Amino acid sequence: MTTKKEHALELFPRDIDSIVAEIGLKTFAGKQIIDWIYNKQVSFANEMTNITKDSRELLSERLLFRRSKIIKTQNASDGTIKKLLEWDDGSKQTETVMIPARGRRTVCVSSQVGCPVGCTFCASGLGGLEGNLDVGQIVEQVIKLGGKDVTNVVFMGMGEPLANYSAVTRAIRILNAPWGLGIGARKITVSTVGLPTAIEKLSTFDIPVTLALSLHAPNDELRKELIPWAKFASIDDLLKACNKYFDATGREITLEYLLIGGVNDRVEDAKELVGLCKTLRCNVNLIRYNEVPELKF
Q1: Is the pTM of the predicted complex or chain greater than 0.90?
Q2: Residues 289/261, Cβ–Cβ less than 8 Å
Q3: 3-class SS of residue 41
């Protein structure tokens, strides 16, 4: 019977130790393999030069080191790099972006294929949701755009991260772990359109990442026009959940606010937004809107 290959980039040391025991390697081989996977970031088992050839062949039968193929790379004049990744059999594609700025190398990762939210200003949800990404697929995006050279990770690509909670939080553990990519909790940001129950759940997560709320409107009426999921939770409910997150973690909340001409960027909108900010320990990230040909804004 053939054992299904496991994606190496979603395994913890205990998982590797189990494989080491199963195939009869020395106990210390577990640490060596983890080092090859996350520190040296090999793409194939045969690159593990301090592991015997027979053992490498056994590992090749058990582990898959990469699941994606780079379909397209775009390089901007400011150093930003965008990659279109195709997964497994080619039926699913996602984008990931590396943004360099003031000594930082920030990778923006996707958590889902497509998006279920359907924000009226966003291209990611035009085709709806095709599915969740697995833990290793999330980690692999960071590897593809620099791995150990990456300083910051933001879950702001395709999808709603808190709708894929289990995979996202396990991926965060790998990104943060000293044996993984070693990225500090304060340098990992999870952006959500607003799921109060999931925000409260995240407040109990033992790695205090930065929480960003995609607000984009200063009142419920306008927000429902821009974000269909806004009908499930009021701004007041979201800010209450964010306050609980701050109380639990001590981490200031980022309010993301996309500026759409003539829609949410008026003086009265700004004054209303200020009123919301006074109820929460937060900062506001004003985002320039990139026009999408298929959309009206």
Answers
A1: yes
A2: yes
A3: coil
